Amino acid sequence: MTTSLQQFPARSTAADDATSARGEFRRVMGHLPTGVVVVAALVDDAPVGMAINSITSVSLDPPLIAICIDNKSSTWPQIRAAGSFTVSILPAHDHQAPRRFSGPSENRFDGVGWHSHETGPVLDDSVAWIDCEVHQEHSAGDHTIVVARALDLGTAEDGQALLFFRGQYGHFIPATRTS
Ligand SMILES: Cc1cc2nc3c(=O)[nH]c(=O)nc-3n(C[C@H](O)[C@H](O)[C@H](O)COP(=O)(O)O)c2cc1C
Questions:
Q1: pLDDT value at 13 more than 50
Q2: What confidence tens digit (pLDDT) does each residue in 125-152 have?
Q3: Phi/psi at 129 (nearest 5 deg)?
Q4: CATH number of 72's domain
Q5: Is 53 in the pocket of ligand 1 (CB under 6 A)?
Q6: Relative to the CA of 71, which of 50, 59, 78, 105 has its CA 20 to 30 Å away?
Q7: Cis peptide before 9 (omega within 30 of 0)
């Protein structure tokens, strides 16, 4: 389906247009499969964290990643204040984790296994983790692009990452050889 972000019904209000444009932008971008991670820090010895899927590697030397954070987030300012944070890549079996880590912000870690790294809490079930410190921030529309330096990182011995595609969660199935 092709939709121009400029083309909306003539009788709609500007607010309707903006809402439709946002929805269409999300719908189209949802066709790019991503992983889902939890970024987290220890705040007054308690773990705080949020689910995000906007994460990418940026630089090998130095090792940098970027994440995009909604300026309305109430959790990010707490993580930002800590200066360092962890990234836990969620496992395929845990479809509930994104909901948990994007829902009501109190007690998101209740009943969740985690252990402490120098930069913050890492989920026990994560298939990979990165210890990060904030390196740079760039304002970008209604989000902030946070560039962070990877201080340490690792993977579980085995594990499938949770995938997010068109609003649904699933897992990776390798293509079979046909020849
Ligand atoms: C699959 C998924 C991906 C998300 N990706 C992002 C993201 O890239 N950036 C972001 O700021 N919020 C993202 N969110 C939303 C945040 O998790 C959510 O807005 C945030 O936790 C709200 O709570 P807060 O006010 O406590 O920060 C995502 C949520 C889900 C379920």
A1: yes
A2: 999 999 999 999 999 999 999 999 999 9
A3: -145, 155
A4: 2.30.110.10
A5: yes
A6: 59
A7: no
